[in-house]
Amino acid sequence: MATSIKKIVGASLIGTTIEWYDFFLYGSAAALVFNKLFFPESDPLTGTLLAFLTYAVGFVARPLGGLVFGHFGDRVGRKTLLVVSLLLMGAATFLIGCLPTHAAIGAAAPLLLTVLRLVQGFALGGEWGGAVLIVSEHGDSARRGFWASWPQAGAPGGNLLATGVLAVLAAVQSESAFLSWGWRVPFLLSGVLVLIGLWIRLSISESPVFQQAPKEEAAPIVTVLRHHRRDVLTAIGARLAENISFYLLTVFVITYAKAEKIDNSTVLNAVLIASAIHFLTIPVWGALSDRVGRRPIYLAGAAGIGVWIFAFFPLVGTGNFLAITLAVTVGLLFHGMMYGPQAAFFAELFATRSRYTGVSIGAQLSAIVAGALAPVIAVALLREYNSTVPISIYLGIAALLTLFAVYKARETQGRDLAERIHA
Question: Has residue 200 got a pLDDT over 90?
Answer without folding.
Answer: no
